[in-house]
């Protein structure tokens, strides 16, 4: 991996792309520490420290993770990339149920450009909604949920003009993040949005590890680091695991030339759904705590009391963990079903003269692909559920509290994006310095 980066910096055009990517990521991180208008910087930093010490920011852990800690600081980039991710997921789901979107998806590059435009519009709408909700929680004192932190401390001016300005600035920050991600994709290396998420996730690692070193004993710190390395190794192994289904193309005569006769394979990953099921499940379990924060924890409503008891902010209840696990497994099967269509793949293979050895083309091929995909998705979904639950179980065993840095979501993002970026760098290197059979 390090050798690929060294060779990349020796190639002029690839070096320029890497430097441009680093420059955009630096600007992105700069926006994550600039406070929004009307925020008392000193007071908000103190509130963040109190919330981390009391572990009272658990209900916003997912959004705070994707913002690199900018959410609790009410920064310009407080929303991070989360609105865009949510909009992309919604558009992918609606493509299956709305014929117009499905037709656009099949139109190629022009249709994809139209879907991207719809995603941007939806991202802006979600950014307005999320920024309004976060500012409302901050105004009512539900953002930090600590007795020492009062809304008047970090929001001294709570006028309508100030709050509307904060909503506008946070929404504009999300639009800038979308633009930065597209710039990286077009002129840099790797997928822009994925690299932005990767940057925000690793941004909170040094502080988390530092707090564990200060608050825990040496053997607990060593045990957590060792468990993190083992977890990363296992995730790398599972993310690379795949089932290769061989495909043979029959020879056919076109004019005076013979085409076909080649063999290839269809790579089906064990974790075909990626990180999406974990994001789905986390987003759904985030809604009950958001409702509790808006209604009030001291309410006599039995529904609120039920949610507060069985779906706590730290996720330590058995009902919360079981629901989280089942949602991940269900969403894994659901997302794979809508993103990989065995019937469409079988029809395309039959159209171009391809077939799986010992499997008849057409419907038998589709049934075989569906059978293999189901067998792969079952261990893949269980793996996702266990990886997401493992940090919750480790919290209670190690006593690290909310400072545990090796969360399932963060590990999956780091490993997935890191492997994908390295593969793209190696592909660029192979195009410029291809090694033949003779060396």
Automatic annotation (TrEMBL):
Signal peptide: none annotated. SUPFAM superfamilies: Preprotein translocase SecY subunit. InterPro entries: SecY, SecY/SEC61-alpha, SecY_CS, SecY_dom_sf. Keywords: Cell membrane, Membrane, Protein transport, Translocation, Transmembrane, Transmembrane helix, Transport. It is found in: Cell membrane; Membrane. It is a multi-pass membrane protein. PROSITE patterns: SECY_2. The chain crosses the membrane at residues 18-36, 70-98, 118-139, 159-181, 193-213, 219-238, 317-340, 381-398. The central subunit of the protein translocation channel SecYEG. Consists of two halves formed by TMs 1-5 and 6-10. These two domains form a lateral gate at the front which open onto the bilayer between TMs 2 and 7, and are clamped together by SecE at the back. The channel is closed by both a pore ring composed of hydrophobic SecY resides and a short helix (helix 2A) on the extracellular side of the membrane which forms a plug. The plug probably moves laterally to allow the channel to open. The ring and the pore may move independently. Belongs to the SecY/SEC61-alpha family. Component of the Sec protein translocase complex. Heterotrimer consisting of SecY, SecE and SecG subunits. The heterotrimers can form oligomers, although 1 heterotrimer is thought to be able to translocate proteins. Interacts with the ribosome. Interacts with SecDF, and other proteins may be involved. Interacts with SecA. HAMAP family: SecY. This is Protein translocase subunit SecY. The gene is secY.
């Amino acid at each position: 991996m390090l050798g690929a980066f060294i060779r990349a910096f020796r190639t002029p055009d690839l070096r320029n792309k890497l430097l441009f990517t680093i420059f955009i990521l630096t600007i992105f991180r700069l926006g994550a520490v600039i406070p929004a208008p009307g925020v008392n910087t000193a007071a908000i930093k103190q509130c963040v420290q109190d919330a981390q010490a009391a572990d009272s920011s658990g209900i916003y852990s997912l959004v705070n993770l994707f913002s690199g800690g900018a959410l609790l600081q009410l920064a310009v980039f407080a929303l991070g990339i989360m609105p865009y991710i949510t909009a992309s997921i919604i558009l992918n789901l609606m493509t299956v149920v709305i014929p117009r979107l499905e037709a656009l998806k099949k139109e190629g590059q022009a249709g994809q450009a139209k879907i991207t435009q719809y995603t941007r519009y939806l991202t802006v709408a979600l950014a307005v909604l999320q920024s309004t909700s976060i500012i409302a929680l901050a105004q009512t004192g539900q953002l930090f949920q600590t007795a020492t932190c009062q809304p008047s401390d970090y929001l001294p001016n709570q006028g309508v003009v100030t709050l509307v300005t904060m909503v506008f600035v946070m929404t504009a920050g999300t639009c800038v993040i979308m633009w930065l991600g597209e710039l990286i994709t077009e002129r840099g290396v790797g997928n822009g949005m994925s690299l932005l998420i990767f940057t925000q996730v690793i941004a909170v690692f040094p502080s988390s590890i530092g707090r564990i070193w200060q608050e825990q004993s040496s053997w607990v710190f060593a045990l957590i680091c060792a468990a993190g390395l083992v977890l990363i190794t296992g995730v790398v192994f599972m993310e690379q695991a795949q089932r290769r289904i061989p495909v043979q193309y029959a020879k056919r005569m076109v004019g005076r030339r013979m085409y076909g006769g080649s063999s290839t394979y269809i790579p089906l990953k064990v974790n075909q759904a990626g990180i999406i099921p974990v994001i789905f499940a986390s987003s759904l379990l985030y809604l009950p705590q958001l409702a509790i924060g808006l209604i009030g924890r001291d309410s006599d409503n039995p529904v609120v009391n039920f949610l507060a008891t069985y779906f706590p902010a730290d996720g330590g209840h058995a009902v919360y963990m079981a629901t989280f696990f089942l949602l991940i497994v269900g969403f894994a099967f659901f997302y794979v079903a809508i993103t990989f269509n065995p019937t469409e793949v079988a029809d395309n293979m039959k159209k171009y003269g391809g077939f799986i050895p010992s499997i008849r083309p057409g419907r038998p091929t589709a049934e075989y692909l569906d059978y293999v995909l189901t067998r792969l998705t079952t261990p893949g979904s269980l793996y996702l559920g266990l990886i997401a639950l493992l940090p919750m179980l480790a919290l209670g065993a190690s006593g690290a509290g909310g400072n545990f840095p090796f969360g399932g979501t963060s590990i999956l993002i780091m490993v997935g994006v890191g492997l994908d970026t390295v593969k793209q760098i190696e592909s660029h290197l192979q195009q410029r310095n291809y090694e033949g059979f003779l060396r």
